[in-house]
Amino acid sequence: MNIEQEMGINMERLKIGSWIIEVDNSKTQAFYEKQPLITEEWDSDFEQNYVLACETFPKEVNDFFHSLGVDPRKQGEVNQYKENNDGTYIYGGFYFIVGNIISGPDFWVNTVEGLTPNFETVNGIQIAFTNELAMTPDEELPKPVIQLEFQLNVPWLLN
């Protein structure tokens, strides 16, 4: 048994897009199991719609979230940005993950227009990873913690 196993660290190394990350799926999943649905803390129409839409995400999107231990319906930051021409909406936000970034591009890139997010499309979702947490999770999350940033198109399902 190595020292990491003795400390209860169960990191799996993943290559996702341009990033190589280590993730403790079971600790991340345990964190999300204790979290409320997004709509229990914030009850806007766009958040209600997002939680409903999570059930209709393509398999590849749900598989992506679950491979990291994330339940996308649960505590995180979710925003609705704009309506697309096809009637879907661009949603974005972030989730916390127990893990490390081994290598990969920075999330923010300095351009002529200023700082621009550096998303890559993976499994039908725009994603990026960062060590810079936008806020502290309400409940203690085992360390180390990284942040998954995302954007994706979501259908409007509310009446």
Q: Average pLDDT value?
A: 90
Order of helices and strands: HEEHHHHEEEEEEE
Q: How much β-strand is present in the residues?
A: 35-45%
Quantity of strands, as a count = 9
Major beta sheet summary: 7 strands, antiparallel
**What would you report as the Rg, rounded to the nearest angstrom?**
16 Å
* Quaternary structure of the protein: single chain
**C-alpha geometry:** globular
As a percent range, the share of helical residues equals 10-25%
Distance between the termini: 55 Å
The count of helical stretches stands at 5
Regions with little confidence, pLDDT below 50 for 5+ residues: 1-7
Structural class: alpha+beta
Supply the number of structural domains.
Answer: 1
Question: How does this model look, in words?
Answer:
There is one protein chain. The protein has helices at residues 3-6, 25-33, 38-41, 45-54, 59-67, and strands spanning 12-16, 19-23, 77-83, 89-103, 108-111, 114-117, 120-122, 125-130, 145-154. By secondary structure, the protein is of the alpha+beta class. The chain has one domain (3-154). The strands form two sheets. Strands 1, 2, 3, 4, 7, 8 and 9 form a seven-stranded antiparallel beta sheet that branches. It is globular. The termini are far apart.
